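INSTRUCTION: Work out how this chain folds

Token vocabulary: learned, describes local backbone geometry

RECORD BEGINS BELOW THIS LINE
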Amino acid sequence: MTTPSPDPLHRRDVIVAVSCGLFVAAMVGAAYAAVPFYDWFCRATGFNGTTQVATSAPAGVIDRKVTVRFDANVDRKLPWRFEPEQNSIEVKLGEVVTVHYRVTNEAARPITAQAGYNVAPLNAGSYFQKINCFCFTEQTLKAGETREMAVVFYVDPAMVKDSDGREINSITLSYTFYKLPDPVTPPVADGSAPGRRGQI
């Protein structure tokens, strides 16, 4: 007795299903990989105004100066007051500078937030070197608390060797604070309210 050969239509459906499954898996993997790759690309190239993280002090200071302006913003959902201690300074290329921002929680309860940043013009990002910064670090402020936060940076003298960079006379460093979700309080095992003993 001979075994009937598989139905060609059934075999085609299986091939199409497997191909679709592999395609979906590849797209999901690519989506997860895109985020760290994009972050690496921005940090490596200064794309989209992403500043660089300095691993050492600059080689030297040159007389060429630029004006660095400081901008502070908060998300509309965040009841914080956030401002730079000075609106702008003039710095020499290669000069290590420390500036401060001040933030106050104007709410009646503790709130946690985190700041993102960028620089403008966008092509200045690859030359703006941060040595120390409060960005991407969770900041929890008590009700009414004020905190001073420092930014240490320099502008790379290599900027004058770039045909686009040598035309830059001012750079704006901009920070925006975003509210983070409130922590979830775990439920009490016996069903009683936190801080109270269960009824007997």
